[in-house]
Write a structure and sequence with these properties.
With 396 residues, this protein is of the alpha/beta class. It has helices spanning 34-49, 76-83, 96-103, 121-124, 127-134, 170-183, 203-209, 223-229, 244-257, 298-309, 330-344, 354-362, 376-383, 389-395; strands at residues 13-17, 52-56, 88-89, 110-112, 139-142, 166-168, 190-194, 215-218, 233-234, 260-262, 266-270, 279-283, 286-287, 292-296, 313-317, 348-351, 371-372. 35% of the residues lie in helices and 16% in strands. The chain has a 6-stranded parallel sheet. Strands 10-8-7-15-16-17 form a 6-stranded parallel sheet, with helices on both faces. The chain has a 3-stranded antiparallel sheet with strand order 12-11-14. The longest helix is centred in the first third of the chain and has 16 residues, at 34-49.
């Protein structure tokens, strides 16, 4: 792979696509800097080589051009503190003013460009917009795994203008290597844990994993659609009625593929979506009317944990329940505990997806798993076997 660790960037203008799509509070303070932290090794590599680091990213989903709340200037102070240097800012991401800002840079400087998505051409992969971006640098580096599954101007099209000077950043390289570790030659037993609210969006990854894993554990809101597919009564639980037949089919497919599909057997239920609701416990196929399932129960935790502890390769995407509420976090926390113990015993564990990563941080598991992926959507598409445009663009 074309990796920037293999070259010297001294005196080069290095255009780095990062993922600074970070959450901000109402005062524009960053509430989670994980994505910025993840990009630091690549930025520091450019600085230490004596290159000029030109940072481009998107932030949020602006509709029509500039929006104050989505300006990347809100990341400057924090990035400056992390790098311990004063980081510059350009009010645009293309054009004469931006070129002038770059011309003033000295070796070792860092300049952040304004939000790429203030231009609609970014998301359409517009060739002219990509060409204008390409004029800003001598070298192109993609270090944004979180957007690698998008064929956008700054993640894919732009690489055409750097046929001999395009590289993977250290983060993107690391992401691909860790996914390859899990998928190409996994130590067995190989277990995938898929949670979250809905089957929709996870169908392709589930069917793809059937060809790779030994065990597939299902949790979260999607489990209740499976419970209904088995003829169960699920009360007022979240259900995708149009996916019940599909859930039945996925159960049948698992048997045909020789994969052990583990579905929750019991459920922690509430009479309303509220931490202070009336709570009761039941079999997942026998939830009373007026109650909804919000977490897996102890029997499910015990069964799932045993399989996890016996595993040598583990992928986790999606929580087991509504872990944001104290009364419904037990399932997610206990499954996370089991993954950490398995990792300590020598298993390789990869966690990805916004909610899973949030849970890992909330419960203090960050240092106890093998790898935390920065891109939920990109990770899912990679697991499905899809080619990621941002990756292909560097490899071609």
């Amino acid at each position: 792979m074309n990796n920037i660790s293999d070259i010297s960037l001294k005196g080069k203008k290095v255009l780095i696509r990062v993922d600074f799509n970070v959450p901000l509070d109402k005062h524009f303070n960053i509430t989670d800097d994980s994505r910025i932290q993840a990009a630091l090794p690549t930025i520091k590599k450019v600085i230490s080589d004596g290159g000029k680091a030109i940072i481009m990213s998107h932030l949020g989903r602006p509709k029509n051009g500039f929006e104050e709340k989505f300006s990347l200037k809100h990341t400057l102070k924090h990035l400056s503190n992390l790098l311990e240097i004063e980081v510059g800012f350009s009010l645009d991401c293309i054009g004469k003013k931006t070129l002038k800002d770059i011309s003033k840079m000295e070796n070792g400087d860092v300049l952040v460009l304004e939000n790429l998505r203030f231009y609609s051409q970014e998301k359409t992969g517009d060739n002219d917009f990509a060409k204008q971006l390409s004029k800003l640098g001598d070298v192109y580096v993609n270090d944004a795994f979180g957007t690698a599954h998008r064929a956008h101007a700054s993640t894919s099209t732009i690489a055409n203008y750097f046929p001999k000077n395009k590289y993977f950043g250290l983060l993107l390289n690391n992401e691909i290597n860790n996914l390859e570790t899990a998928l190409k030659n996994p130590q067995r037993p190989f277990t995938a844990i898929i949670g979250g609210a809905k089957i929709t969006g996870k169908i392709d990854v589930i069917t793809s994993l059937y060809d790779k894993v030994d065990n597939l554990i299902i949790g979260g809101g999607m489990a209740y659609t499976f419970a209904k597919a088995m003829g169960g009564c699920i009360g007022d639980s979240l259900v995708e009625n149009d996916k019940v037949a599909l859930a039945k089919s996925l159960i049948t497919q698992a048997k045909a593929k020789g994969v052990q599909l583990l579905l929750p057997s019991d459920s922690i239920n509430a009479n309303e979506f509220n931490n202070n609701a009336i709570i009761q416990h039941s079999e997942i196929t026998n939830i009373p009317d007026g109650f909804m399932g919000l977490d897996i129960g102890n029997d499910s935790i015990t069964r799932f944990s045993k399989v996890i502890l016996d595993s040598k390769t583990i992928i986790w995407n999606g929580p087991m329940g509504v872990f944001e509420m104290d009364n419904f976090l037990n399932g997610t926390k206990k499954i996370g505990d089991a993954i950490c113990k398995a990792t300590k015993n020598g298993a390789f564990s990869l966690v990805g997806g916004g909610d899973s990563v949030a849970a890992v941080k909330q419960f203090g598991f960050t240092e106890k798993v093998s790898y935390i992926s920065t891109g939920g959507g990109a990770m899912l598409e990679y697991l499905e076997g899809k080619k990621l445009p941002g990756v292909i663009a560097i490899q071609d």
